[in-house]
Amino acid sequence: MSEIATPYEDLLSKILAEGNRKTDRTGVGTISLFGAQMRYDLNKSFPLLTTKKVFTRLILEELLWMLAGDSNIERLVKNNVHIWDEWPFRHYLMENGLPIPEPNSEDWNQQMREFTDRVASDHEFAVRWGELGPVYGFQWRHWPTTDGGEVDQIAKALDQIKHSPDSRRIIVSAWNAADIDEMAKAGLPPCHALFQFYVADGKLSCQLYQRSCDMFLGVPFNIASYAFLTYMMAQQAGLEPGEFVWTGGDCHIYLNHVDQVKEQLSREARPYPTLKLNKAKDLYSYSADDFVIEGYDPWPAIKAPIAV
Fold first, then answer.
1. Closest Cα partner for 259 from 206, 197, 303, 306?
2. What separation in angstroms does the CA of 169 have from each of 157, 240, 297?
3. Catalytic: which of 191, 206, 213, 251?
4. Pick from 261, 251, 268: which is nearest to 18 by CA?
5. Is residue 191 flagged as an active site residue?
6. Radius of gyration for the alpha carbons in the chain, expressed in angstroms and rounded
7. What is the pTM of this model?
8. Phi and psi torsions of 16, nearest 5°
9. With contact defined as beta carbons under 8 Å apart, do 272 and 69 qualify?
């Protein structure tokens, strides 16, 4: 490994060396370690991995989609973002009694392209079959209350950051126990389940708890996504970005990702880039073009199948 050792690469190595072989929901199998933490100083650099290229446009479009309170893949596929396609596609096949092709096969990929093309072009179809259920964006912006109302957790958190910065209750949760079964019908229960903000010395820090951590494919996206969110919240509150703390529960490497992980660990890490964020009028008015990554010099991307 490089002299610029990073928390992420160190954790990958630890999982390979010390992890447990476990079965999992997908049937692929994993090497898993329970309980880990990584820390990143956002005031110095932006935690975008350099041992493989991470595509920020996808991350930003997903984050902005969540902040909008959306839970349908229509907006994502229209922006050529396909990281959520597999689950509604599988749900569509099951609900209509259609055979499910072998995941990642040519037939699977062809049928899924046809499905997402229709989601993008047919709004009524998208409303019926593109819905993931009450997942992240819904819980962040529309957490249902027992009296029929709702809580906008993001707006409340930003207000607390501005007016009660020493509060220990600046928390946003996506883990609504009453909605877990509903989420699982067409999507997944939240993997990144809860995050908390902390203000000190004019800086805003954020800690995420992620219950299930696909270390090779998912976690690099999650680190960058919550770092982006911390920058946005800090800017809107008139603060500097502080630290992003990632805390993981079941931290796993899928067995069909092991070779890719080993290839990644053979590469020398390079310095992290920096982020220049153009200020929007409010938290919900940012576009992907407002985020300018400077000095990003990663190794090439490494492809791997998504376990569904």
1. 303
2. 9, 20, 38
3. 191
4. 251
5. yes
6. 19
7. 0.94
8. -60, -40
9. no
